[in-house]
TrEMBL record:
Classification via Pfam families: Beta-lactamase, DUF7586
Designated name of the protein: Class A beta-lactamase-related serine hydrolase
Taxonomic source organism: Streptomyces klenkii
GO molecular function: hydrolase activity
Species lineage: Bacteria, Bacillati, Actinomycetota, Actinomycetes, Kitasatosporales
Domain of life: Bacteria
Keywords, comma-separated and alphabetical: Hydrolase
Length: 488
């Protein structure tokens, strides 16, 4: 269970009313027959509600809706489990595992991040509204122009790409992707209301006439081979469980009856989940969105949100998580193209984060420390630019510029005495404490960049050397310029 820094998981009355108002506004303005919403905070379901017509007697958090492309994140979890078990590599070509007429040159990572170059949709007719029996094999997924872009060149969302990933799971595990999902993910996380086909109580899917308040039922077909791209049904309560898992925790209601199994770490490690949350190609500029390994990454009002949005005929779903705040917002609606649900999920999350900001966990000293780690802390200089190096919880080092600008990063210790960058510019780079023959720390080498204890410290550590005369005042500079000028 995540250590919740709250004395009481219950939300304040004003916060609860603001959440209800946002959900009600979204359902009304979105003209959705029904909309359910929920908020997860630090592993606990702290609020849920619904507006519109629900099945008789059903609790809002227990009503199933089709979640569309959120299914892709579940498939990505299965693929990352295979990677972590050593059964595949992300750089492997999918063609090494599957006899596919298209996409065989794309890597597993490219399929996960939608950079495979495959077409966005399966061969017609419209796969989301037609029975999967029309596409019984992989060869039936692709039309006349399945490969639109060179693999790895750009992001191009591809539903057939995730059909291939589902087939990859089946090829390696030897059983259907959903059976694997049920056993390896859903059951350990306590998600018994997430299913391949609907189970009561569930919402029916509808289209709403654009110019009149009348409804048209939408089909809910079994999409067969395309199911890994958008087949699953789920509830707000189950998606809150999944949100807690995506942040590296387990799940409870916050009202005394915990649903958490504590086995989220057995599904995927925190390091693998962090890897999934990183956009392909690395960090993006503020305001830009990206796509990681099965997870959408977006910027919203200064927050980095991860999760996924899903649509199928008659349904829209949104699951958004702010790892920084420890909060997730979920919204489900049973109307085609009711994209208000996406804004509702983001606003539910932001409402709690803004009205009830996270209370920091108590500061505590490290339980143990090595002298050779402690002696690395303090002030360092890259040339004349000042930096500080701190020893943090878990034994990590944190490098941060002391002035304006500069590149920082966190580093984890390795068994050989070096450190590996965890994020930002130095992700994956090696930090080495270079020592003298006597064992004292001479300088730091970070990917060939040298950090010294003094600005341009004297000695031979700085590549290119340091002027033997050292630092000089303005008079010395003027004299040097004068002596070096051209006298005519």
């Amino acid at each position: 269970m995540i250590d919740a820094p709250y004395e009481d998981a219950e939300l304040l009355p004003a916060t609860r009313r603001a959440l209800l108002h946002r959900l009600a506004t979204g359902q009304s303005e979105g003209r959705a027959p029904s909309m359910t919403g929920a908020v997860m905070r630090d592993g606990h379901l702290v609020w849920s509600s619904a507006r519109g017509e629900l099945p008789g007697g059903a609790q809002a958090e227990d009503v199933q809706y089709r979640i569309g492309s959120i299914t892709k994140t579940f498939v990505a979890v299965l693929v990352m489990r295979l990677r972590d078990e050593g059964l595949l590599k992300l750089e492997d070509r999918i063609g090494a595992y599957l006899d596919t007429p298209a996409g065989g040159d794309a890597t597993v990572a490219q399929l996960l991040s939608h950079t495979s170059g495959l077409a966005a949709e399966a061969r017609g007719p419209w796969w989301e509204r037609t029975d999967g029996a029309l596409r019984p094999g992989l060869a039936d997924l692709f039309g006349d122009h399945p490969q639109l872009h060179t693999p790895g060149r750009l992001h191009h969302y591809s539903n057939p790409g995730y059909a291939l990933l589902g087939a990859l799971v089946e090829r390696i595990r030897g059983e259907s992707w959903y059976d694997v999902l049920r056993r390896e993910v859903l059951e350990p996380l306590g998600m018994d209301r997430t299913t391949l086909t609907p189970g009561a109580p569930h919402a029916d899917g509808w289209a709403v006439h654009p110019w009149a308040d009348v409804l048209l039922p939408e089909p809910a077909v079994d999409t067969g081979r395309m199911a890994p791209a958008g087949q699953l049904w789920s509830t707000t309560a189950d998606l809150c469980r999944f949100a807690a898992f995506l942040m590296g925790g387990s799940y409870g209601t916050g009202r005394g009856d915990s649903y958490g199994t504590g086995r989220g770490g057995q599904v995927l490690s925190a390091a693998t989940l962090a890897e999934m949350r990183t956009p392909e190609g690395g960090s993006r500029a503020p305001g830009q969105s990206g796509y990681g390994l099965g997870l959408q990454v977006m910027q919203n009002d200064g927050r980095t949100l991860v999760g996924h949005i899903g649509t199928m005929p008659g349904f829209v779903a949104a699951l958004l998580v702010s790892p920084r705040d420890g909060i997730a917002g979920v919204a489900l609606a049973n109307r085609t193209s009711c994209f208000e649900a996406v804004g509702v999920a983001a606003d539910l999350l932001a409402t709690v984060a803004d009205l009830e900001p996270r209370i920091p966990a108590p500061w505590r000293p490290l339980s143990e420390v090595k002298d050779e780690h402690l002696e690395l802390t303090g002030s360092w200089y890259w040339g004349a630019a000042p930096f500080t190096l701190r020893l943090c919880a878990g034994g990590a080092l944190e490098l941060a510029p002391s002035g304006s600008g500069g590149r920082g990063s966190r580093f984890r210790p390795e068994e050989d005495g070096t450190w590996t960058g965890l994020d930002e510019y130095y992700a994956g780079e090696t930090l080495t404490a270079v020592r003298t023959a006597e064992g004292a720390v001479s300088h730091l080498d970070l990917g060939t960049f040298v950090f010294t204890r003094e600005p341009y410290g004297a000695g031979d550590a700085v590549p290119g050397g340091v002027d033997a005369a050292g630092w000089r005042a303005a008079e010395g500079v003027r004299q040097q310029v004068s002596e070096g000028s051209d006298q005519r």
